[in-house]
Amino acid sequence: RAAGRLAAVVAVLELRAGTSSIKIGEVLQLSAIVKDKNGVAVTNVPVIWSSATPSIATVTSTGVLTGRGVGVATIMAKADTLSRTLSLSVPFGQRSDYPADHDTDDSTDD
């Protein structure tokens, strides 16, 4: 019965990344906002995170995302009966361990 009451309380699940792409090796904290039907935040509902594309990005149980490979990562979160997905791209040639002064100029000296 308590689970039924909880399901009635949870009406909105919003996922936030703060960006649409990450680099390979980069770590990003995702957030999930759970709200009731009146738009009031509900804090006593656990959020379960998972990745449908672990070769591109992994996510911990606390929503910490790590870029692993090139592609589009699909991250899922579930709070009670609601589930949502979030997509982030991991572009080719983007690594968080490149030096800040990495030379990307392909021109040649004549």
Number of strands: 8
Radius of gyration: 18 Å
Computed structural class = mainly beta
Shape: elongated
Task: Give the ordered list of helices and strands.
Answer: HEEEEEEEE
Q: What distance lies between the first and last C-alpha atoms, to the nearest angstrom?
A: 78 Å
Largest sheet: 3 strands, antiparallel
- Segments where pLDDT lies below 50 for 5+ residues? 98-110
Overall helicity = under 10%
Biggest sheet, strands in spatial order?
2-6-5
Give the percentage of residues in beta strands: 35-45%
Number of helices: 1
Mean pLDDT: 84
Summarize the structure.
The chain has one helix spanning 2-9; strands at residues 12-16, 27-29, 31-35, 47-51, 57-59, 64-67, 71-79, 82-90. It has 110 residues and is mainly beta. The strands form three sheets. A three-stranded antiparallel sheet has the order 2-6-5, with no helix packed on it. Strands 4-7-8 form a three-stranded antiparallel sheet, with no helix packed on it. It has a two-stranded antiparallel ribbon with strand order 1-3.
